[in-house]
Automatic annotation (TrEMBL):
GO terms for cellular component: apoplast. It is an enzyme of class 2 (transferase). Keywords: Apoplast, Cell wall, Cell wall biogenesis/degradation, Disulfide bond, Glycosidase, Hydrolase, Secreted, Signal, Transferase. GO terms for molecular function: hydrolase activity, hydrolyzing O-glycosyl compounds; xyloglucan:xyloglucosyl transferase activity. It is found in: Secreted, Cell wall; Secreted, Extracellular space, Apoplast. The lineage of its organism: Eukaryota, Viridiplantae, Streptophyta, Embryophyta, Tracheophyta. Catalyzes xyloglucan endohydrolysis (XEH) and/or endotransglycosylation (XET). Cleaves and religates xyloglucan polymers, an essential constituent of the primary cell wall, and thereby participates in cell wall construction of growing tissues. Belongs to the glycosyl hydrolase 16 family. The keyword Lipoprotein does not apply. SUPFAM superfamilies: Concanavalin A-like lectins/glucanases. Residues 1-22 form the signal peptide. PANTHER family: XYLOGLUCAN ENDOTRANSGLUCOSYLASE/HYDROLASE PROTEIN 8-RELATED (PTHR31062). GO terms for biological process: cell wall biogenesis; cell wall organization; xyloglucan metabolic process. This is Xyloglucan endotransglucosylase/hydrolase.
Amino acid sequence: MAWSHLGPCFLFICSLLALVSGSQIQRTSLPIISFDEGYTQLFGDDNLVMYRDGKTVHLSLDERTGSGFASQDLYLHGYFSASIKLPADYTAGVVVAFYMSNGDMFEKNHDEIDFEFLGKIRGKDWRIQTNIYGNGSTSVGREERYSLWFDPSDDFHQYSILWTNSQIIFYVDNIPIREVKRTESMGGDFPSKPMSLYATIWDGSDWATNGGKYRVNYKYAPYVAEFSDFVLHGCAVDPIEQFPRCDHTEISQAIPTGVTPVQRIQMESFRTKFTTYSYCYDRARYKAPPSECVINTKEADRLKNYDPVTFGGGRRHHGKRHHRSRSSHAEAITI
Protein backbone atom coordinates (compact mmCIF):
# COMPACT_ATOMS: atom_id res chain seq x y z
CA MET A 1 0.00 0.00 0.00
CA ALA A 2 1.24 3.51 -0.80
CA TRP A 3 1.40 5.71 2.30
CA SER A 4 2.73 8.92 0.78
CA HIS A 5 -0.72 10.38 0.02
CA LEU A 6 -1.62 10.29 3.73
CA GLY A 7 0.85 13.08 4.51
CA PRO A 8 3.36 13.76 7.28
CA CYS A 9 0.73 14.33 9.97
CA PHE A 10 -0.60 10.79 9.67
CA LEU A 11 2.89 9.32 9.64
CA PHE A 12 3.91 11.33 12.70
CA ILE A 13 1.01 10.20 14.87
CA CYS A 14 1.34 6.58 13.72
CA SER A 15 5.03 6.55 14.55
CA LEU A 16 4.35 8.08 17.96
CA LEU A 17 1.77 5.40 18.70
CA ALA A 18 4.17 2.68 17.58
CA LEU A 19 6.85 3.95 19.91
CA VAL A 20 4.55 4.31 22.90
CA SER A 21 3.04 0.85 22.47
CA GLY A 22 6.49 -0.67 22.04
CA SER A 23 7.88 1.07 25.09
CA GLN A 24 5.21 -0.07 27.55
CA ILE A 25 7.13 -3.32 28.12
CA GLN A 26 10.18 -1.28 29.03
CA ARG A 27 8.21 0.86 31.47
CA THR A 28 6.39 -1.92 33.28
CA SER A 29 9.59 -3.94 33.70
CA LEU A 30 10.96 -1.29 36.05
CA PRO A 31 9.63 -1.24 39.63
CA ILE A 32 7.36 1.63 40.66
CA ILE A 33 7.88 2.62 44.29
CA SER A 34 5.92 4.62 46.83
CA PHE A 35 7.17 8.00 47.99
CA ASP A 36 8.42 6.73 51.36
CA GLU A 37 10.41 3.94 49.72
CA GLY A 38 12.67 6.32 47.85
CA TYR A 39 12.10 9.95 48.78
CA THR A 40 11.98 12.34 51.71
CA GLN A 41 10.61 15.86 52.07
CA LEU A 42 13.11 18.61 51.30
CA PHE A 43 11.20 21.77 52.26
CA GLY A 44 7.72 23.26 52.33
CA ASP A 45 6.17 21.87 55.53
CA ASP A 46 2.49 21.12 54.85
CA ASN A 47 2.82 22.19 51.20
CA LEU A 48 3.78 18.57 50.53
CA VAL A 49 0.84 16.18 50.87
CA MET A 50 0.76 12.44 50.19
CA TYR A 51 -2.22 10.55 48.72
CA ARG A 52 -3.07 6.95 47.78
CA ASP A 53 -0.88 5.45 50.53
CA GLY A 54 2.12 7.48 49.40
CA LYS A 55 1.86 6.59 45.72
CA THR A 56 0.98 10.17 44.76
CA VAL A 57 2.43 13.40 46.15
CA HIS A 58 1.20 16.98 45.74
CA LEU A 59 3.69 19.85 45.86
CA SER A 60 2.21 23.33 46.21
CA LEU A 61 3.40 26.92 45.95
CA ASP A 62 1.68 29.72 47.86
CA GLU A 63 2.65 33.12 49.26
CA ARG A 64 4.47 31.46 52.17
CA THR A 65 6.68 28.97 50.38
CA GLY A 66 7.16 26.46 47.63
CA SER A 67 7.92 22.81 48.37
CA GLY A 68 10.05 19.91 47.29
CA PHE A 69 11.38 16.43 47.94
CA ALA A 70 14.65 14.57 47.38
CA SER A 71 15.72 10.96 47.00
CA GLN A 72 17.01 9.20 50.08
CA ASP A 73 20.01 7.87 48.15
CA LEU A 74 22.68 9.19 45.81
CA TYR A 75 22.88 7.48 42.44
CA LEU A 76 25.61 6.96 39.89
CA HIS A 77 23.77 6.30 36.61
CA GLY A 78 20.39 4.71 36.04
CA TYR A 79 16.84 5.36 34.84
CA PHE A 80 14.73 7.81 36.82
CA SER A 81 11.12 8.70 36.17
CA ALA A 82 7.91 10.21 37.52
CA SER A 83 4.46 10.91 36.16
CA ILE A 84 3.65 14.59 36.65
CA LYS A 85 0.50 16.69 36.31
CA LEU A 86 1.22 20.42 36.21
CA PRO A 87 -0.88 23.27 37.65
CA ALA A 88 -3.62 24.62 35.37
CA ASP A 89 -4.87 28.10 34.46
CA TYR A 90 -2.60 31.15 34.96
CA THR A 91 0.81 29.87 36.07
CA ALA A 92 3.19 32.61 34.92
CA GLY A 93 6.42 32.68 36.94
CA VAL A 94 5.84 29.19 38.38
CA VAL A 95 8.65 26.68 37.95
CA VAL A 96 8.17 22.95 38.50
CA ALA A 97 11.42 20.97 38.36
CA PHE A 98 12.29 17.28 38.23
CA TYR A 99 16.05 16.93 38.20
CA MET A 100 19.28 15.37 39.43
CA SER A 101 21.96 17.34 41.27
CA ASN A 102 24.83 17.09 43.75
CA GLY A 103 25.01 20.81 44.51
CA ASP A 104 24.74 20.18 48.24
CA MET A 105 27.97 18.12 48.15
CA PHE A 106 29.92 19.95 45.44
CA GLU A 107 29.05 23.63 45.72
CA LYS A 108 31.69 24.86 43.27
CA ASN A 109 31.81 21.94 40.83
CA HIS A 110 28.36 20.37 40.93
CA ASP A 111 26.66 18.24 38.26
CA GLU A 112 23.04 18.58 37.21
CA ILE A 113 20.49 17.03 34.80
CA ASP A 114 17.26 19.03 34.57
CA PHE A 115 13.65 18.88 33.52
CA GLU A 116 12.16 22.32 34.20
CA PHE A 117 8.55 23.24 33.45
CA LEU A 118 8.03 26.96 32.92
CA GLY A 119 4.63 28.46 33.70
CA LYS A 120 2.37 30.35 31.31
CA ILE A 121 -0.16 33.12 30.94
CA ARG A 122 -3.66 32.28 29.74
CA GLY A 123 -3.86 31.37 26.09
CA LYS A 124 -0.24 30.19 25.97
CA ASP A 125 1.37 26.80 26.65
CA TRP A 126 3.62 25.37 29.32
CA ARG A 127 7.21 25.09 28.09
CA ILE A 128 9.69 22.37 29.01
CA GLN A 129 13.36 23.17 29.43
CA THR A 130 16.11 20.54 29.67
CA ASN A 131 19.66 21.28 30.71
CA ILE A 132 22.86 19.60 31.90
CA TYR A 133 25.84 20.81 33.90
CA GLY A 134 29.05 18.98 34.69
CA ASN A 135 31.74 19.94 37.16
CA GLY A 136 30.23 23.37 37.76
CA SER A 137 30.11 24.30 34.07
CA THR A 138 27.25 26.76 34.58
CA SER A 139 28.92 29.30 32.29
CA VAL A 140 28.42 26.92 29.35
CA GLY A 141 24.67 26.80 28.88
CA ARG A 142 23.25 23.62 27.31
CA GLU A 143 19.59 24.54 27.51
CA GLU A 144 16.86 23.35 25.19
CA ARG A 145 13.18 24.31 25.29
CA TYR A 146 10.15 22.66 23.74
CA SER A 147 6.40 22.92 23.40
CA LEU A 148 4.29 19.75 23.64
CA TRP A 149 1.55 18.02 21.67
CA PHE A 150 -0.69 17.90 24.77
CA ASP A 151 -1.67 20.06 27.73
CA PRO A 152 0.51 18.82 30.64
CA SER A 153 -2.00 20.21 33.16
CA ASP A 154 -4.89 18.04 31.87
CA ASP A 155 -3.51 14.70 33.05
CA PHE A 156 -0.41 12.85 34.23
CA HIS A 157 2.45 12.38 31.77
CA GLN A 158 5.69 10.50 32.31
CA TYR A 159 9.04 12.33 32.32
CA SER A 160 12.21 10.23 32.48
CA ILE A 161 15.98 10.56 32.53
CA LEU A 162 18.43 7.89 31.39
CA TRP A 163 21.97 8.60 32.61
CA THR A 164 24.96 6.38 31.81
CA ASN A 165 28.70 7.03 31.68
CA SER A 166 28.42 7.80 27.97
CA GLN A 167 25.01 9.39 27.35
CA ILE A 168 21.99 11.20 28.77
CA ILE A 169 18.51 10.80 27.27
CA PHE A 170 15.39 12.75 28.21
CA TYR A 171 11.97 11.13 27.60
CA VAL A 172 8.38 12.38 27.57
CA ASP A 173 5.82 9.57 27.74
CA ASN A 174 8.61 7.14 26.76
CA ILE A 175 9.43 9.15 23.64
CA PRO A 176 13.07 10.33 23.61
CA ILE A 177 13.17 14.09 23.06
CA ARG A 178 16.88 14.77 23.64
CA GLU A 179 20.09 12.74 23.53
CA VAL A 180 23.46 13.99 24.81
CA LYS A 181 26.41 11.78 23.95
CA ARG A 182 29.61 12.25 25.89
CA THR A 183 32.53 13.51 23.80
CA GLU A 184 36.19 13.63 24.74
CA SER A 185 36.32 17.41 24.40
CA MET A 186 33.46 17.82 26.91
CA GLY A 187 35.82 16.70 29.65
CA GLY A 188 34.27 17.31 33.05
CA ASP A 189 31.30 19.11 31.52
CA PHE A 190 29.55 15.74 31.28
CA PRO A 191 27.88 14.86 34.62
CA SER A 192 29.96 12.14 36.22
CA LYS A 193 29.59 12.36 40.01
CA PRO A 194 26.84 10.73 42.12
CA MET A 195 23.62 12.75 42.30
CA SER A 196 20.29 12.82 44.12
CA LEU A 197 16.85 13.11 42.51
CA TYR A 198 14.79 16.21 43.31
CA ALA A 199 11.33 17.58 42.60
CA THR A 200 10.38 21.16 43.47
CA ILE A 201 7.85 23.91 42.81
CA TRP A 202 8.96 27.49 43.35
CA ASP A 203 8.60 31.14 42.35
CA GLY A 204 10.76 31.89 39.31
CA SER A 205 9.13 35.22 38.51
CA ASP A 206 12.42 36.89 37.61
CA TRP A 207 13.00 34.71 34.55
CA ALA A 208 10.57 31.84 33.96
CA THR A 209 7.88 33.42 31.76
CA ASN A 210 8.91 35.76 28.93
CA GLY A 211 12.15 36.60 30.70
CA GLY A 212 10.35 37.81 33.82
CA LYS A 213 7.74 39.95 32.06
CA TYR A 214 4.92 37.96 33.70
CA ARG A 215 5.23 37.16 37.39
CA VAL A 216 3.49 34.80 39.81
CA ASN A 217 0.05 36.09 40.75
CA TYR A 218 -0.82 34.63 44.14
CA LYS A 219 -4.52 35.26 43.78
CA TYR A 220 -4.45 32.00 41.77
CA ALA A 221 -2.56 30.13 44.52
CA PRO A 222 -2.06 27.50 45.66
CA TYR A 223 -0.34 26.17 42.55
CA VAL A 224 -0.30 22.38 42.82
CA ALA A 225 1.94 19.94 40.93
CA GLU A 226 1.11 16.24 41.29
CA PHE A 227 3.69 13.42 41.16
CA SER A 228 3.13 9.68 40.84
CA ASP A 229 4.62 6.46 39.36
CA PHE A 230 8.05 6.95 40.92
CA VAL A 231 10.93 5.02 39.36
CA LEU A 232 14.38 5.16 40.97
CA HIS A 233 16.23 2.46 39.09
CA GLY A 234 19.90 3.22 39.48
CA CYS A 235 23.10 2.41 41.25
CA ALA A 236 22.93 3.74 44.81
CA VAL A 237 26.18 5.17 46.15
CA ASP A 238 27.46 5.40 49.70
CA PRO A 239 27.38 9.15 50.55
CA ILE A 240 30.60 8.99 52.57
CA GLU A 241 32.81 6.67 50.54
CA GLN A 242 30.94 7.38 47.27
CA PHE A 243 31.26 3.71 46.43
CA PRO A 244 28.44 2.00 44.46
CA ARG A 245 26.22 -0.40 46.41
CA CYS A 246 24.82 -2.33 43.48
CA ASP A 247 25.46 -4.84 40.76
CA HIS A 248 26.15 -2.73 37.67
CA THR A 249 25.35 -5.66 35.39
CA GLU A 250 21.92 -6.17 36.95
CA ILE A 251 21.10 -2.46 36.73
CA SER A 252 22.29 -2.05 33.15
CA GLN A 253 20.34 -5.08 31.92
CA ALA A 254 17.04 -3.60 33.11
CA ILE A 255 17.31 -0.10 31.60
CA PRO A 256 17.39 1.13 28.00
CA THR A 257 20.79 0.99 26.32
CA GLY A 258 20.17 3.92 24.01
CA VAL A 259 17.91 5.21 21.26
CA THR A 260 16.70 2.50 18.88
CA PRO A 261 16.35 3.21 15.13
CA VAL A 262 12.57 3.53 15.51
CA GLN A 263 12.95 5.83 18.49
CA ARG A 264 15.45 7.96 16.58
CA ILE A 265 12.89 8.60 13.88
CA GLN A 266 10.40 9.62 16.56
CA MET A 267 12.88 11.84 18.35
CA GLU A 268 13.84 13.64 15.15
CA SER A 269 10.17 14.10 14.28
CA PHE A 270 9.44 15.54 17.72
CA ARG A 271 12.42 17.85 17.65
CA THR A 272 11.69 19.30 14.23
CA LYS A 273 8.11 20.10 15.28
CA PHE A 274 8.37 21.14 18.92
CA THR A 275 11.86 22.49 19.70
CA THR A 276 11.73 26.25 20.32
CA TYR A 277 15.30 26.76 21.54
CA SER A 278 18.56 24.80 21.39
CA TYR A 279 21.97 26.11 22.34
CA CYS A 280 23.44 24.07 19.50
CA TYR A 281 21.93 26.48 16.96
CA ASP A 282 22.34 29.72 18.94
CA ARG A 283 24.62 31.72 16.65
CA ALA A 284 24.37 34.76 18.90
CA ARG A 285 25.85 32.71 21.75
CA TYR A 286 28.30 30.32 20.10
CA LYS A 287 30.26 30.94 16.92
CA ALA A 288 30.61 27.18 16.51
CA PRO A 289 28.35 24.51 18.07
CA PRO A 290 29.83 22.71 21.12
CA SER A 291 31.36 19.32 20.38
CA GLU A 292 28.44 17.21 21.57
CA CYS A 293 25.96 18.92 19.21
CA VAL A 294 24.65 16.91 16.27
CA ILE A 295 23.31 19.39 13.73
CA ASN A 296 20.04 18.53 12.02
CA THR A 297 19.21 20.72 9.02
CA LYS A 298 15.44 20.47 9.61
CA GLU A 299 15.85 21.62 13.21
CA ALA A 300 18.17 24.40 12.09
CA ASP A 301 15.75 25.65 9.43
CA ARG A 302 12.77 25.61 11.79
CA LEU A 303 14.60 27.52 14.51
CA LYS A 304 15.98 30.02 12.02
CA ASN A 305 12.44 30.77 10.87
CA TYR A 306 11.22 30.90 14.48
CA ASP A 307 13.89 33.39 15.59
CA PRO A 308 16.19 34.62 12.79
CA VAL A 309 18.24 36.82 15.14
CA THR A 310 19.21 34.06 17.58
CA PHE A 311 19.47 31.18 15.13
CA GLY A 312 20.26 32.77 11.80
CA GLY A 313 22.17 35.97 12.43
CA GLY A 314 19.39 37.96 10.76
CA ARG A 315 17.66 41.16 11.76
CA ARG A 316 14.56 41.08 13.91
CA HIS A 317 11.37 42.33 12.26
CA HIS A 318 9.14 44.51 14.40
CA GLY A 319 5.88 43.24 12.92
CA LYS A 320 3.81 40.58 14.60
CA ARG A 321 5.27 37.09 14.53
CA HIS A 322 2.89 34.17 14.36
CA HIS A 323 3.17 31.84 17.38
CA ARG A 324 1.56 28.45 17.07
CA SER A 325 -0.62 27.56 20.02
CA ARG A 326 -1.02 24.07 21.43
CA SER A 327 -4.26 23.71 19.46
CA SER A 328 -2.35 24.01 16.21
CA HIS A 329 0.23 21.53 17.53
CA ALA A 330 -2.58 19.11 18.24
CA GLU A 331 -3.81 19.42 14.68
CA ALA A 332 -0.34 18.45 13.48
CA ILE A 333 -0.43 15.06 15.21
CA THR A 334 -4.04 14.00 14.93
CA ILE A 335 -5.77 12.38 12.02
